[in-house]
Design brief:
Length: 148
């Protein structure tokens, strides 16, 4: 019997795991990424009120929401999160809210793309603006997108 390989292409590859967030962050070798990862862990936990959960092997997420595309594909994703990648810090869920454009204009040195916010190091951005992006992004994803 032939196996339908297209089914695997539509599965969400980034799912919540039972992996340890602390172990993941402890293994980050780059000292600035390690320090910034710990700071983001504290900020996102504080401003979302949610515990940190590993999503896939490299994303630390807070909260969750369910999405469903017009194509029929659906799944769960972290409401907000981050990953201390080699090239930069990737932050997720912070660019969707209606307030995000004005906040990003005041954030400091960053790039955006594909729904992500990229920062080289937290010292490059205004932490007060970042916390507003976290709050607003979390609220938008869990209330507006969750109920859309």
């Amino acid at each position: 019997m032939a196996v339908n390989k297209t089914l695997n292409k539509t599965e969400n590859k980034t799912t919540a795991t039972g992996a340890s967030v602390e172990d993941f962050l402890a293994a980050v070798e780059h000292p600035v990424r390690h320090r910034d990862g710990l700071r983001l862990l504290a900020l996102m936990a504080e401003f979302t009120g949610q515990p940190a959960v590993m999503w896939g092997p490299t994303i630390v997420g807070f909260g969750r929401y369910h999405y469903k595309y017009a194509s029929g594909r659906e799944g769960d994703a972290p409401a907000v999160g981050f990953s201390p990648r080699k090239a930069n810090l990737s932050l997720y869920g912070l660019t969707y809210g209606p307030e995000s454009a004005a906040l990003l204009a005041r954030l400091g040195k960053h790039k955006t793309g594909a729904g992500c916010l990229y920062v080289n190091k937290l010292d490059d951005v205004d932490e007060a603006v970042l916390t507003e992006l976290i709050r607003n992004g979390y609220r938008h994803v869990t209330t507006v997108l969750h109920h859309a």
